C-alpha cells in the first residue's frame, strides 16, 4: 500500500498550498493532484523524485510511511530561508575521502541514489568496491543498463560496471571524445561528448550508431562523472578475421618447422 496520496495532502495542508498551487510547482494538472490524494492514481517516478527533492524528503518515505506533522518538522519542508539561497557546502562522505574506495551504484538502486546523492550517510552505506586505480578520492562505480555505448562487440555492455571520477560542476572541464556519466533527476546518461555548444549545451553521442546524437543542457546534471575504466564479465570471442590470422600464423609456424627439419 502506498501512502503518497495521504502524504501529499498533509504536505499541501501544512504548507497552505491549494491543489492548483501544488500542481503548478511540479507542472501537473490540478485534477491529477486530487486523484493522487484520493488514491485513484499515483505520480510517475519522475514526479515523485521532484516532490521529494523540493521538500527535502525521500521517495521511500513518501511511498511507504504515513508521515506525521511532527516528523515533517525534521525535514526541509518547514525551512524558513528563501528557496533560492545557496545552501552550505555539505561535508564529503567518508568514502569520498578514501583514495581507493569506490561506492558502487547498482542499477536497481539508481533512483534511490538520484534522490539521496547528496547524503553522506547514504553514500557511505553503498556497497564499496576497491578497484586498483590512481584516480584519487571521490569516485563512483555505476552499473550500465542498455547497449547504447556498445558497437561491434566493443564498448560498454549491458550490466558492465564503469569506474568514474568526479567532474566539478562549477568548472565542468569536459573534453570532446571522452565518455561521461551524467546523473539527472530521472536517470543516468552515459554518452561520449561530441562537442560543447554555446549556452552550456553539450552535444552527446552514443557509440552505437543505431542511437542518434542529442543535445544536453549542463543545468540538467545533478552530478557529472568521467568514465575512466570498465569492469566486465563479458569475454569477447575472437572475430572471424582474427581467427583466420591465427590459423595462418599457425600454418606458417608448422611449415617453417618442417623446412628446418
From TrEMBL:
Pfam family, one: HTH_3
Protein name (Swiss-Prot/TrEMBL): LexA family transcriptional regulator
Molecular-function annotations in GO: DNA binding
Keyword Plastid found: no
UniProt cross-references to SUPFAM superfamilies, sorted A to Z: lambda repressor-like DNA-binding domains, LexA/Signal peptidase
Phylogenetic classification of the source organism: Bacteria, Pseudomonadati, Bacteroidota, Cytophagia, Cytophagales
Organism of derivation: Hymenobacter perfusus
UniProt KW keywords: DNA-binding
InterPro entries per record: Cro/C1-type_HTH (IPR001387), Lambda_DNA-bd_dom_sf (IPR010982), LexA-like (IPR039418), LexA/Signal_pep-like_sf (IPR036286), Peptidase_S24_S26A/B/C (IPR015927)
Segments forming domain HTH cro/C1-type: 8-62
Amino acid at each position: 500500500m502506498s501512502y503518497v496520496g495521504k502524504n501529499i495532502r498533509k504536505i499541501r495542508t501544512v504548507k497552505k498550498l491549494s491543489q492548483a498551487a501544488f500542481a503548478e510547482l511540479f507542472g501537473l494538472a490540478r485534477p491529477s493532484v486530487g486523484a493522487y490524494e484520493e488514491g485513484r492514481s499515483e505520480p510517475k517516478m519522475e514526479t515523485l523524485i521532484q516532490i521529494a527533492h523540493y521538500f527535502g524528503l525521500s521517495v521511500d518515505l513518501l511511498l511507504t510511511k504515513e508521515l506525521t506533522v511532527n516528523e515533517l518538522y525534521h525535514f526541509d519542508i518547514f525551512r524558513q530561508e528563501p528557496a533560492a539561497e545557496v545552501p552550505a557546502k555539505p561535508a564529503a562522505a567518508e568514502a569520498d575521502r578514501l583514495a581507493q574506495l569506490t561506492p558502487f551504484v547498482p542499477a536497481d538502486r539508481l533512483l534511490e541514489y538520484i534522490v539521496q546523492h547528496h547524503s553522506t550517510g547514504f553514500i557511505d552505506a553503498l556497497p564499496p568496491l576497491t578497484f586498483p586505480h590512481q584516480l584519487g578520492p571521490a569516485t563512483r562505480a555505476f552499473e550500465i543498463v542498455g547497449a547504447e555505448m556498445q558497437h561491434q562487440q566493443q564498448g560498454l555492455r549491458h550490466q558492465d560496471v564503469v569506474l568514474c571520477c568526479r567532474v566539478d560542476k562549477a568548472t565542468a572541464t569536459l573534453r570532446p571524445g571522452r565518455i561521461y556519466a551524467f546523473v539527472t533527476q530521472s536517470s543516468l546518461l552515459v554518452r561520449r561528448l561530441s562537442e560543447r555548444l554555446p549556452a552550456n549545451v553539450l552535444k552527446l553521442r552514443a557509440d552505437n550508431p543505431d542511437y542518434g546524437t542529442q543535445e544536453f543542457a549542463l543545468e540538467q546534471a545533478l552530478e557529472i562523472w568521467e568514465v575512466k575504466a570498465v569492469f566486465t564479465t563479458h569475454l569477447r570471442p575472437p572475430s572471424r578475421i582474427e581467427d583466420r590470422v591465427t590459423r595462418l600464423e599457425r600454418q606458417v609456424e608448422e611449415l617453417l618447422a618442417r623446412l628446418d627439419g
